[in-house]
Design a protein that fits this description.
It contains 15 helices and two strands. The chain is an all-alpha fold. Helix 1 crosses helix 4 and helix 3 packs antiparallel against helix 4.
Amino acid sequence: MPLSDRIDSALHRAIRRGQGGLAPQQLASALDYATTPGGARIRPTILVSVAMACGDDRPEITDRAAAALELIHCASLVHDDLPCFDDADLRRGKPAVHRAYSEPLAVLTGDSLIVMAFDVLSRADAGDAGRTLGLIRALSDRTGMPNGICAGQGWESEPEIDLRAYHRSKTGALFMAATEMGALSAGHAPENWTDLGALIGEAFQVADDLRDALLDEASLGKPVGQDDLHGRPNAVAELGVEGAMARLGDILAGAIASIPSCPGEAALAQMVRKQAQQIMPKVPAARARSSV
């Protein structure tokens, strides 16, 4: 089964469980809306790829971990778009959840997806409670305070931002969760995989800064110019377009070099290169030069 189908099937099962019983229908519908279409599913793809590189001896656990990670990511997007944060009207080329369903339902949708993520993990094979507990701990650490995406959002309310801490938690946290949880799913030590996740997260942040500066709303599928609008620190403002592109290349080379020795090391390096091609902004040369 292709990785995308495997991830989407696991996510679909989780959402259907959350829509069962006498569920309120608007909120049940919003769960689907917030998670589909799925975009690139970069984070769960990395998780499953790491698990496969490490042997993937318990694929059911891997699938649950991938679904849980994507549920947290989708929840973060719903909350990020709210008027109290980014006040974004579009996400993945369609109205943001709070525009399609209302602000109260968007808050509840994000909350429900977060709870669902941990419910999915808690229902993993009881025959290996150690892996399940490790996965829950890894995901909670990269979701909440002080190391997770909640901390990343919190930095935006501080009068002074620690840029490294901000990027590491805002963007890097779920990439570190992806590599750590992939290793955990296959019974390997997560700490050996943290650096890879951190570097991929840093690369994604730089690429996102470039896309925000260079692409238009139609290409990006969400509002552009958000870094300038909200006064956020970003790689393009600091390094210029050419400098940010060079920095992105250096980070990706470092990510590939950081892959721990494992049976699927070569295939994993190929996956990282493929993801790098996907996140690299593709813009006309004239526009890139005008933004330097």
